Amino acid sequence: MEENIVNSPAPTDFIRAIVAEDIKNNKHGGRVETRFPPEPNGYLHIGHAKAICIDFGIAMENGGVCHLRMDDTNPTKEDIEYVNSIMEDVRWLGWDWNKHMFYASDYFEQLYDYAVELIKRGKAYVCDLTQDEVKSHRGTLTEAGKESPGRDRSIEENLDLFAKMRAGEFEDGSKTLRSKIDMASNNIHMRDPAIYRIRRFHHYRTGDKWCIYPMYDFAHCLSDSIEDITHSICTLEFEIHRPLYDWFLDALEVKKHPQQIEFARLNLSYTIMSKRKLLELVQNKLVNGWDDPRMPTICGLRRRGYTPEAIRDFCEVIGVTKYNSLTDIALLEHCLRNDLNKTAMRVLAVINPLKIVIENFPEGVTDELDAANNPENPDSGSRKVPFSREIYIDRNDFMENPPKKFFRLAPGQEVRLRYGYFIKCESIIKDDAGNITELRCTYDPTTRGGNAPDGRKVKGTIHWVSVPNALEAEARIYDRLFTVENPGGVEDDYLNYMNPDSLKTEKCFIEPAVADAKPGDKFQFERQGYFCVDLDSKPGKLVFNRTVPLKDSWAKLQQSEKTN
Ligand code: ATP
Ligand code: MG
Q1: What is the pLDDT of residue 2?
Q2: One fold for both 349-462 and 474-563?
Q3: Which CATH class for the 109-216 domain?
């Protein structure tokens, strides 16, 4: 045993410490069984990714298993579309539940039996109060609640009424089955919370079989127990529900009593994470569906060009604590750049084109320049980039009247073309309105490959694309969906803070290397950012999403903190 302790790495967070301690003490026979229990009422988002990495990660690290359980006890908002997307997203993130796929709705019969058992034990009763009356009976934080007149019903009468609830003899909302705990409890959740309510609603799996549905707190702990979960890991808002979680399991004296452990949920700046609000964005067509690349959903991030590696890395970096906080979205983007930097092929692309004619380069000739596909990856090889008399550069890389430290192209000033030659601006061509339409330049043939044999230096290197070889594509440039750091926390409507410029569509020109790119392929457009081929892309009509610009504000922040 001693040896074991020395050899195992120190747990990286408090949940892993609890699990390690339980294994050491042979609690649950040393077994680790967790679950990820989404309600299939929306698509998964980056916050769920955090929970998934904790649930699946802890199980995997300890040779255990993690269940995927659809927490589908509320028929009004659930749908098979969501079940399918959840399965796809968990798999895409890199996790495998193997054969451990479950549905809380499969336990409806068993849960009903548990409720009957509670009645028999004198721990549940049928209540006739309306929803409003229940509310007014509940009391406040400082005042005890008032007991329901139904509380003193006999067990026989309760059994009879509950059976009739199931049989559909009562109107929706006219009765509830409630736990008999303590209307004076300091914890409002313990004041005889509801166990079953009557609700005639078609369930996407059980159809019209049931007109009563179990409440979350009752169904959740018992589902965990039925599946013999050892560690039921959830977010902090359930901490106050834990006494109730334990109460149900104790009152029923079930053999399997999982341990609920809570951690702080992920909140991300400039983002909302509520499924209700995300659904609202989709339904009101404020975004183009759940997988709109501006959405914090897993499918949105995937379409945007995020990788599962980057998301898992992010989840590891943010760690697991009990303190609520707002995580800077720049950290997520930093993790993404780290990954794409290693894997994305570099290409030359111009989004904001300005045409250049190189007057001393022969017409009709194409030079083929060598370019490394990814300097970070020696195995990625190189390619030929066509160069010719007419090229596009980015408009922002030229200034007619440059300030002192402008090292890019300017009248009479030399600049290096990436992988190519030095060019010098000789003259500017303008339209009648005075807009620059073209530049006339000369190139120095001795500088092929980027160095001058005479040793003269240029400070700037700019990207470019050969006009006759360029592929025209659409570039979708995204910005934050919201203009405030915490749109979920504003006093008025969060919709007032939507960024009107969150999507801009631009025409761009790209070197021919991307001609056969498929949806999902990722590139670095040099000096600009990472781009991913969108699902809308077709051969001959390429569409790119800008995944993330190159400038890493997180790395910058870390740098300045170090030097300060
Ligand atoms: P709702 O807003 O409808 O309650 P939810 O976001 O809690 O939904 P669930 O489907 O109930 O969604 O979540 C499944 C699991 O993911 C839960 O265990 C929940 O605690 C966890 N989870 C949800 N949001 C986050 C988040 N932002 N950070 C970490 N975990 C989260
Ligand atoms: Mg929830």
Answers
A1: 41
A2: yes
A3: alpha beta
Q: What pLDDT shows up at residue 564?
A: 61
Q: Which CATH number fits domain 474-563: 1.10.10.10, 2.40.240.10, 3.40.190.10, 2.40.128.190?
A: 2.40.240.10
Query: Considering only CA atoms, which of 321, 295, 297 is closest in space to residue 93?
Result: 297
Site residues for ligand 1, CB cut-off 6 Å: 37-39, 47-48, 50-51, 234-235, 265-266, 273-275
Q: What is the mean pLDDT of residues 269-289?
A: 97
Do the beta carbons of residue 215 and residue 108 sit within 8 Å?
A: no
pTM of the model: 0.94
pLDDT tens digits, residue range 102-145? 999 999 999 999 999 999 999 999 999 999 999 999 999 999 99
Question: CA-to-CA distance for 36 and 108, rounded, in angstroms?
Answer: 19
Fold of 8-104+218-330: Rossmann fold (3.40.50)
Residue 277 designated active-site: no
Tell me the pLDDT tens digit for each residue of 58-98. 999 999 999 999 999 999 999 999 999 999 999 999 999 99
Average pLDDT over residues 416-431: 98
Strands 65-70 and 101-103: parallel
Spell out the domain ranges in the chain. 8-104+218-330, 109-216, 349-462, 474-563
Question: How far is ligand 2, taken at its centre, from the CA of residue 495, in Å?
Answer: 22
pLDDT for residue 8: 60
Which pair of structure tokens corresponds to residue 237? 């808002």
CA-nearest residue, atom 25 of ligand 1: 47
Residue 271: other Cβ atoms inside 10 A: 25
